[in-house]
Amino acid sequence: MMAKAKILLIDDHRSVLRLLEAILTLKGYALLYAESGQQGMALARQEQPDLILLDVMMPEIDGFKVCQYLKGQPETAHIPVVFLSARGAADDLEAGRRVGAQGFLTKPFLAGEVLAMVERQLARCGEGQ
Description:
Blueprint lengths: L5 E5 L3 H12 L4 E5 L2 H11 L3 E5 L7 H9 L9 E5 L4 H9 L4 E4 L4 H14 L5
Parallel strand pairs: 1-2, 1-3, 3-4, 4-5
Helix pairs in contact: 2-3
């Protein structure tokens, strides 16, 4: 049996991290947690997750800048990034695409939406089950 994918969760709200944990651990995914953009960038470089779920609105450095940084680094450019945000306007979606994100989910999200997006992204990079 193959090991489940490793997912990095980057969000400055612990309640969101706990909700994502409840959804994703039921499917056996290994999770890493970061509560800031800086911490998330360091963990991504160090741990090489299979997927990153990234909040947009965070203090100090927003998710768009985090994604742009990760996509610009050879060691993290290949990692798919999915934004999770309360901001879901067309210009936010376009900004996410411009910095290299593979997906965008708006908060509040449903567990099924998160799982479907995670499984779709992992299947694209061959990491799923």
